[in-house]
Amino acid sequence: MHGSLYAGLFALALGLPHAATAASVFRCVDAAGKVTFSQRGCPIDQQQALQQAENPTPGNGKPVPMATPKKNAGVKSGKKQAKPRELVVTGGQDDGCGNLLDASQRRQATIRREVRDGMSRQDIESAFGRPDKVSTQNGQVRYTYEADGNGRSRQVTFDEAGCVKSKAKKKR
């Protein structure tokens, strides 16, 4: 008795991997035409159809050759080769400060705690932190950083666009 039970379970186990690759699912279509799939059946108000779902192993194991370029592609015999075209940028990012610094120069100035023309208020605050004093005169903003470890203070003046107007002035 137990032998036939074990044989039946063994046969069932052998068939499971094959059953996992192909399964039946319910295809449900509602009144609006929306299609959903379910393993448990469809609601009463939807049309139900049994559909076979297969998940085959990708590829058939045969290698697919890559496309081979034609010899001397782009060069026609007997004709002069055309000059490469110049790259024209029609739209670029404007940092609002005249693009005087590229990203690398801006990052280096921030790390070295330098004030350079073309930096914004945000760049200065990234390098030095919040200013100790902020003053405004004629549309220009001035950040003042009080004495550092050397007893020096720093002033940075920004124009109306929020860009460094001139190099920082160090006071003694």
Automatic annotation (TrEMBL):
Keyword GTP-binding annotated: no
Signal sequence, renumbered to the chain: 1-22
Organism: Pseudomonas kuykendallii
Record field: compositional bias (Polar residues): 46-58
Protein name per its UniProtKB record: Beta-barrel assembly machine subunit BamE
One Pfam family recorded for the sequence: DUF4124
Domain DUF4124, chain residue ranges per copy: 13-58
Region (Disordered): 46-100
Keyword terms, alphabetized: Signal
